[in-house]
Amino acid sequence: MTLVEEDVSLMFAALADPTRRSILGKLAEGDATVGELAEPFAMTQQAISKHLKVLERAGLISRSRTAQSRPCRLEAERLDAAVEWIARHRRTWSERYDRLDAHLENIRRPESEKEPSK
Amino acid sequence: MTLVEEDVSLMFAALADPTRRSILGKLAEGDATVGELAEPFAMTQQAISKHLKVLERAGLISRSRTAQSRPCRLEAERLDAAVEWIARHRRTWSERYDRLDAHLENIRRPESEKEPSK
DNA sequence: CCGTTGCACAACTTATAGGTTGTTTACTCT
DNA sequence: AGAGTAAACAACCTATAAGTTGTGCAACGG
Predict the structure, then answer these.
(1) Is pLDDT above 90 for B16?
(2) How far apart are CA B52 and CA B35, in angstroms?
(3) B87 → chain A, closest CA residue
(4) For FRET with A68, which of A58, A100, B7, B55 sits at 20 to 30 Å CA-CA?
(5) Does residue B17 reach within 7 angstroms of strand C, measured from its CB?
(6) DSSP per residue over B64-106, as a string?
(7) How far is A50 from chain B (nearest CA, A)?
(8) How far apart are CA B98 and CA A91, in angstroms?
(9) Which of B25, B74, B94 sits opposite A76 (nearest CB)?
């Protein structure tokens, strides 16, 4: 699950575009088809399709092949990776943020698994 | 301190480049001059200078005018903004991450200011 | 079986990103 | 004043990003 540098680049690059961030926001409310995602934008369906491909390469969404439509699903876990990358580098920058890092450790595993010691 | 959409774009775009991320990593160890930052890379000083300009526009570094050199300083706080953006959107995606959001609220203010209530 | 809908693929245009070389500015040192 | 060093500025090249139009194709719905 730990990312190589290129993954990080793809992720941040994907997040750098407002249209794509908007798409992610919409997907947060639930899975959606390409048409549904394209509708609010003053942009062709093809353009949105390209954006979705970028998001898919970045691992931020996945697409199933249901009949004639291709619903997109948000892969929210991938966003953890972004936060984690920042946190990991941030650790050296200010020890105050060790706590953020520790916190991320915790939320990445189910409640029950939390280590009481250490 | 809350970011407008364009700031977010600039930030993520700045983080999308491996060279720039590497520069940030180096700056984490302390302030450095352009020359020092350029040294490890197989790249001209001018190219690094451009990268620094991108990082500066994104608010991730600042530069003082000390004599003949221009030391760069990491503006780590700005990275909070990135994490915060993700967390804010993430909130709707899974309520499990409310805790991350709440945590960020806390670390963004000094220890002493923490609100005990609410 | 034929029209429509939902989406991807291909080719093209324009702008921007990332790099180069060449030059200029500004300070320091002698 | 003049040489050397630190870094920015300018013009240019090339690749890619973001959009377009046009087309193809698969799956339904009469």
Answers:
(1) yes
(2) 12
(3) A83
(4) A58
(5) yes
(6) --BTTB--EEE-THHHHHHHHHHHHHHHHH-GGGHHHHHHHHH
(7) 18
(8) 22
(9) B94
Q: Nucleotides of chain C within 7 Å of a protein C-beta?
A: 5-10, 17-22, 26-28
What structural domains does chain B harbor? 5-75 (1.10.10.10), 78-113 (no CATH)
Cβ(A18)–Cβ(A96) below 8 Å? no
Whether B30 and B24 have beta carbons less than 8 Å apart is answered as no
pLDDT of residue B86: 84
Encoded amino acid at B17, one letter: D
Which residue did the predictor score with more confidence, B72 or A1? B72
Within 8 A by CB and 6+ apart from A26, the residues are A32, A36, A37, A40
Distance B69 CA to D7 C1' (A): 7
Segment B26-75, tens digit of pLDDT: 998 889 999 999 999 999 999 999 999 999 999 999 998 876 788 999 99
Residues 6+ apart with CB under 8 A from A64: A70, A71, A73
Measured CA B18 to C1' C18 distance, in angstroms: 12
pLDDT for A22-74, tens place per residue? 999 999 888 999 999 999 999 999 999 999 999 999 999 999 887 778 899 99
C-alpha pair distances (Å), A88 with each of A35, A81, B28, B55, B76: 38, 10, 11, 19, 12
Helices (H), chain A: 5-15, 18-28, 34-38, 45-57, 77-93, 98-107
Dihedral of alpha carbons B56, B61, B65, B69, sign? negative
